[in-house]
Amino acid sequence: MQFAHSYDGTGHVDFVGAGPGDPELLTLKALKAFERADVVLHDRLISAEVLELAGKTAALVDVGKAGFGPSWNQDDIDALLVDYALKGQRVVRLKSGDPTIFGRLDEEIEAVEAAGITWQIVPGITAASAAVAGIGQSLTRRGRNSSIRILTGHDMKGFADHDWAALARAGSVAAIYMGKKSARFIQGRLIMHGADRGTPVTLVENASRPDQRILATKLDQLPNDLAAAKMDGPALTFYGLAPRQAAQALTEFKKEHA
């Protein structure tokens, strides 16, 4: 691994986790990387409040991707990273949440390394951590689940397949990223493999942000309730977890008094 060095005019790349959107959840290390950046290549879902923390002279470049929609080609992003760094720029590659979780980090590191450019990873708070805090739960609990699966709803080929039989077992808990469009597919696979139709499912939209919304439903009602909720923002789906009543009430209170 190539680590950061004192700046000598040679380009360098920091792969930085922007967290879920609340600027107060950025790490100090991420903020320092922001302050020294010449250019910030950021994902589509990065909040405006986080981008405002970039250095005053830093150029902001949106290289966002959209599931099943228009997106930057990964090869083009890799080439842009290398191009800026080879020109002596201090580059922040800003990724939503944590860059190591569904962030296409490996392709970008490999491109930077191949060009002989130094880099480091600055971890961030991932959506699952922020969302579970928003519903007043924990990702694991003695007597309930000793493990949690972190899944994606879709991959490069379309809806993602998983070990549905294992996930359908009683007591399973999963955090599903990018799961809105695949909700009916996920529901069908789980029920097909014997999952209890009454299993709680919770979606947290815009986790940690002022406009956070919580949708509590059951597996058998998931697609219908999701369609009725008209969630347009980024949302994380928890399979096997329901929000604590107090946490949901707090979210509603914040919305009413915003």
Automatic annotation (TrEMBL):
This is uroporphyrinogen-III C-methyltransferase. Keywords: Methyltransferase, Porphyrin biosynthesis, S-adenosyl-L-methionine, Transferase. Belongs to the precorrin methyltransferase family. The keyword Ion transport does not apply. GO terms for molecular function: uroporphyrin-III C-methyltransferase activity. The gene is cysG. It comes from the Bacteria. Pathway: Porphyrin-containing compound metabolism; siroheme biosynthesis; precorrin-2 from uroporphyrinogen III: step 1/1. It is an enzyme of class 2 (transferase). GO terms for biological process: methylation; siroheme biosynthetic process. Its EC number is 2.1.1.107. It comes from Ruegeria denitrificans. PANTHER family: S-ADENOSYL-L-METHIONINE-DEPENDENT UROPORPHYRINOGEN III METHYLTRANSFERASE, CHLOROPLASTIC (PTHR45790:SF3), SIROHEME SYNTHASE-RELATED (PTHR45790). Pfam families: TP_methylase. The keyword S-adenosyl-L-methionine applies. Residues 15-222 form the Tetrapyrrole methylase domain.
